[in-house]
Specification:
By secondary structure, this protein is mainly α. It has helices at residues 2-25, 51-77, 84-108, 136-151, 155-194.
Length: 206
């Protein structure tokens, strides 16, 4: 069980850092979480990050780092109060989370970013896994976190995982969606109306 837990995390974060390394070789900065625009407010053209947006990104980054540390400790200590069948369900959730996250990274290609950048131009990706989820990367995170909680349950892991998942949702609602609406306007609004935030298409759309 511990080996499987380590492997799920290894695959997940290896995908993240390999993508970051590849983009860095191309001169692309991947990590924009909480970076830049210190003290600059958003104007009517969407330039700059408001204070609340910057805080959300910083808190989200801190929550993900903290969750990773607690996950590693939980795996090492092999903490759990759940029966084997529940832990096996956690394995499946973790593996599905890996698959969803990798699919989102591959589909985004060079438009992949962690956080929002107002300077670098990217494309609006609506193909592949983005046809059934507007935020598959965050969905992948959530599934891995839930999987870890089922496999190595303890109160601290549950609390920090829920905190991180809450920050992901705030990032979507108050940082990424406003940016995408400003950047891509009608194109994004149409996509927004067709595809759900995490999974599935809206009723009435094909």
């Amino acid at each position: 069980m511990q080996i499987v837990g380590y492997m799920i995390l290894l695959v997940f974060y290896l995908c993240y850092f390999i993508k970051m390394f590849q983009q860095r070789k191309q001169g692309i900065q991947t990590d924009h979480m909480g970076k830049g625009k210190q003290g600059i407010q958003t104007d009517h053209m969407g330039k700059g990050k408001q204070g609340i947006q910057k805080k959300i990104e910083i808190m989200m980054k801190g929550a993900t780092i903290a969750t990773f540390i607690i996950e590693i400790l939980s795996i090492y200590l092999n903490t759990t109060t759940f029966p084997l069948i529940i832990r096996i369900m956690g394995i499946f959730l973790g593996i599905i989370g890996d698959i969803v996250f990798i699919a989102s990274v591959l589909t985004m290609k060079d438009s992949w970013r962690a956080g929002v950048s107002y300077e670098e131009k990217t494309d609006l990706i609506t193909n592949g896994i983005y046809q059934i989820s507007r935020n598959p990367a965050f969905l992948g995170f959530d599934l891995v976190y839930l999987g870890m909680c089922l496999m190595f349950f303890n109160t601290i892991l549950l609390i920090i995982s829920l905190l991180a998942m809450m920050m992901f949702h705030l990032q979507i609602k108050y940082v990424e969606e406003p940016f995408l609406k400003q950047e891509f306007k009608e194109q994004y609004l149409q996509y927004y109306q067709q595809v759900n935030c995490y999974i599935g298409k809206r009723i009435g759309f094909k």
